[in-house]
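// run 5 | inverse folding | seed 20
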């Protein structure tokens, strides 16, 4: 029975792979399908490779006017970027998504291409923001207003804008109030995780270290499915322990991050910050010297 189940799973995966591969194509207005292997995007142009005789090939450009639709499943750049973010490799995810933006740019006015371009571009801006690339986030964010965003994306954009405001404004009360309003209006775990990160950053700016730590930890504890936000949230929670002078606890946290996210910027930062507090004891647990008991009445 186990062997049959295993075989079935393999066959199912092969079928899914075949469907995805078949789906990745340009469909020309004359009905011709140009599969993904037969074209590339280069300098904003779509270059098609055509087989003419035997092994001989020739290339030609495909214009927007020739395309009927883009038949494309979920972009691999989105899938790969989510995986990289979950590994704490935000910079690599940004690069992957930028490649996706470049690929889908020539199709943004084509049926089926507009949706793919929008979702990849939106993910790119979101990753820039998570990667703390403030200027580039602001620059690219302006283009989102002109795209056909879904209601969910519009709310996510509102959160990104609030995070930008958080980095430029000292009106923390207003930002926290807006954050709480968003939390009260949605049950989307991705949006909630992003908003709790904003709240955590505000608490950290206000030097409310314990509140900040608890806010960061809400992300892995309550919204653990949002793996793109978990590594940074855990790193920042460990940093709050350092601020609270709980050095031994922070050191253990940093060690776990190094082990859990090998080869990532998160692991590199955790390793450096662990070294900076190496051997230091928790100061918040130090007990003050007892008063001289000879001056105190004996306890019965």
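// decoded
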């Amino acid at each position: 029975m186990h062997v049959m189940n295993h075989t079935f799973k393999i066959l199912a995966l092969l079928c899914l792979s075949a469907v995805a591969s078949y789906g990745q194509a340009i469909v020309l207005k004359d009905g011709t399908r140009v599969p993904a292997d037969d074209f590339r995007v280069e300098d904003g142009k779509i270059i098609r490779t055509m087989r003419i005789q035997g092994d001989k090939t020739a290339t030609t450009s495909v214009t927007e006017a020739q395309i009927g639709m883009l038949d494309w499943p979920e972009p691999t750049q989105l899938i790969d970027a989510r995986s990289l973010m979950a590994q704490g490799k935000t910079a690599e995810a940004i690069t992957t998504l930028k490649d996706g933006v470049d690929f889908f740019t020539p199709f943004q006015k084509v049926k089926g291409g507009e949706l793919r371009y929008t979702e990849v571009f939106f993910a790119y801006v979101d990753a820039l923001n998570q990667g703390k690339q403030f200027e580039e986030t602001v620059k690219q964010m302006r283009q989102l207003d002109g795209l056909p965003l879904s209601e969910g994306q519009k709310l996510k954009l509102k959160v990104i804008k609030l995070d930008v405001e958080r980095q430029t404004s000292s009106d923390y009360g207003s930002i926290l109030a807006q954050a709480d309003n968003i939390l009260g209006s949605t049950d989307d775990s991705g949006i909630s995780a992003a908003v709790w990160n904003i709240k955590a950053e505000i608490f950290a700016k206000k030097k409310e270290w314990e509140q900040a730590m608890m806010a960061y930890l809400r992300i892995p504890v309550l919204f653990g499915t949002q793996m793109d936000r978990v590594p940074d949230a855990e790193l920042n929670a460990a940093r709050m322990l350092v601020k609270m002078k709980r050095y031994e606890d922070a050191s253990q946290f940093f060690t776990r991050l190094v082990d859990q996210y090998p080869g990532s910027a998160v692991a590199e930062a955790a390793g450096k910050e662990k070294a900076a507090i190496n051997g230091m004891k928790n100061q918040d647990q130090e007990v003050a010297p007892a008063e001289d008991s000879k001056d105190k009445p004996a306890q019965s």
